[in-house]
Fold each of these.
Amino acid sequence: MDRGKENCSTFGDAVRRARAKTGLTQEELADRSGIDRSYIGGVERGERNPTLVVICKIADGLGLTLSELFSYDNARGSRD
Amino acid sequence: MDRGKENCSTFGDAVRRARAKTGLTQEELADRSGIDRSYIGGVERGERNPTLVVICKIADGLGLTLSELFSYDNARGSRD
């Protein structure tokens, strides 16, 4: 898997873990972040390469800072 | 300033602060991250909305995890 794809799937795992911790469904996160539910699903599957603005919307929807959201990122060293 | 623009300029400040801390010039960061120097300048000025893959390249170029890089982010609660 190329480095870029790997980063996207790692980020997707972080969003899924953080969302699970908050108890939100993908639908609820989509509503809170103003992003389409299917896009959230694509991000969690590592199929999307979101921009900074979208990443900030997801973090806001989770009620996390960006640093907190990325700390759910297993592969690059972080929180379980 | 709209929320998206604000996030980009906040991220730009974080990259500049992190780069200053590592003592790298924009040129050196551009070389290490495989990104064009003028693009790095645009990111630091908050004029760019980089994708996750580009953000990861910048973090790698700085030798930081994403969580560490975003912790240089003043506005959203962080490290000085």
Amino acid sequence: MKSRQIQLTAYPKGEPGPDHFNLVEVDLPKPGDGQVLVANRWLSVDPYMRGRMSGMRTYVDPFPLNGPMEGGAVGEVIESRSDQLKKGDWVQSMNGWRDAYVSDAKGLQKIDTSILPPQAYLGIAGLTGMTAYVGLKRIIGLKEGETVWVSAGAGAVGSASIQFAKAMGAKVVATAGGADKVNYCKSIGADGAVDYKATDNLAKSVREAAGGGVDAYFENVGGSHWTAALEVLKPKGRIAACGMIQRYNDASAQPIPDNLTNIVAKSLKIEGFIVIDHMDLLGEFIQDLSGWMMAGKVTGEETVREGLGEMPNAFLGLFKGENLGKMLVKL
Amino acid sequence: MKSRQIQLTAYPKGEPGPDHFNLVEVDLPKPGDGQVLVANRWLSVDPYMRGRMSGMRTYVDPFPLNGPMEGGAVGEVIESRSDQLKKGDWVQSMNGWRDAYVSDAKGLQKIDTSILPPQAYLGIAGLTGMTAYVGLKRIIGLKEGETVWVSAGAGAVGSASIQFAKAMGAKVVATAGGADKVNYCKSIGADGAVDYKATDNLAKSVREAAGGGVDAYFENVGGSHWTAALEVLKPKGRIAACGMIQRYNDASAQPIPDNLTNIVAKSLKIEGFIVIDHMDLLGEFIQDLSGWMMAGKVTGEETVREGLGEMPNAFLGLFKGENLGKMLVKL
């Protein structure tokens, strides 16, 4: 059997162009014992992929030249020689940028498409959404009627957090940089939103937008936001500090909070977390999320292109602002 | 009936002396409905009392001149017209500096002298011990075999924390200022102790004393200790930040930690607390403590003087270092 895949022809310097990609037909082996043949139905393109096209090792290896690239994908099992997966099952994998593949079944994650559309697992039902859910549900322990401040509200985790917190019955104040992002936060449900670049007293602005102190703070930013959070949190307030480590590389250049004594004075609780440590919540998350999506409380906004050949354009479109929400390619 | 009490004759400037105190005999009324007559058996003297002798309002009113002073006391009910307390019951109160008093029963806390000696309730079984217990048990959630760093290890809360943590089966590293205090920490069970005044790299010294990183940090100090703690804590480490607010008055003059990103990088948990919010643990605390004391694992060290007339000397002795552990007067 044949499979088609997109390969990288050269490591681009500066902006990549269509010439750096090539659509190639390759032979697929027959599935062996314990293996399955999967036809991909949805492929993900993400900004982080640019890093793997640089030819230099960062925190993962670069993509190979003239070989298969990786990326998020969901597909359907069309042939199985495994006890764990049967024909018709849907699976999630990192075997993107191609229309089909053969793999050991144990390396694939089976997904439940009866409660969520399959492509949701590449966006709001993926690790991004799960990070927002873990932060609000387990780390903060958000309760109905409480007020939560979500920083970086227009970002991937932030925008999921705003919607989830509203679905949980909380009041949400978001912060983001710039008027467009502030408006976006409001459009997805934030009760109030503050442009942190347009205020010289972040704590005061958040307090005004919240109509008082906040019960919890979802930390995605660092620096001056910490100081403001320790200021604006009510007694027994909680901070969830999200494990987006790469954002913290230049933390030493940021302002340092000088009001840590508030941790004691107000009995605050601060907890850093990494989503991978909390995957036991996955089932509960998918259940809550599907309920919220069916009730129209949460929308995983998508921009969809069609056909494997559109992958390079979809990817390049990310850098031209062509997407609203998650950019996907449907096969 | 007559009662004898110590009264303050003048607000001392600088060091108080015996002349500032007067032993006076006063008339006690007969107990009315719902009231009890209590004979004090043990009285507490504490450094904080000096603040109430200044004549200026701090966080509580100053002691009156030529009137009854306050202080921790445990005594025995010798006459009762209350349903809540009967003759022979032991009670804890702030009606110290006197040998007997009449009070509404509802303002008194009954204590169980079958499991702990009554005077323990003025020391290790009082709020000081309870603070240590809440910090280790609930805030940190200390487990057997873990390593905990206790700061201010020679202080009231710190020395209780060292003993309780050892009784819980943990390894303990203490920090304190000066060789004498370091030796004291070791004498009550600390596996390692560091003189923070004698090191220019606190994190490194604690790590050496602990034989590696620590699982938890009991914060009583602030400033540079925070920075070192964020450095020396292992992944998933916990910090209990103890609500001794008065120590934090000059916090703005202390070094500010520049490594808060470790909270995220190591998934740390930090929680400030005030003991009064956790009094539901009191029963469990008294039970654990009595077991530990009977097993000889915890000793509430005491220095005992005898007779009401010794109260001024016992109090003045606090400032001359005449006590080891809790200073008490037995009546």
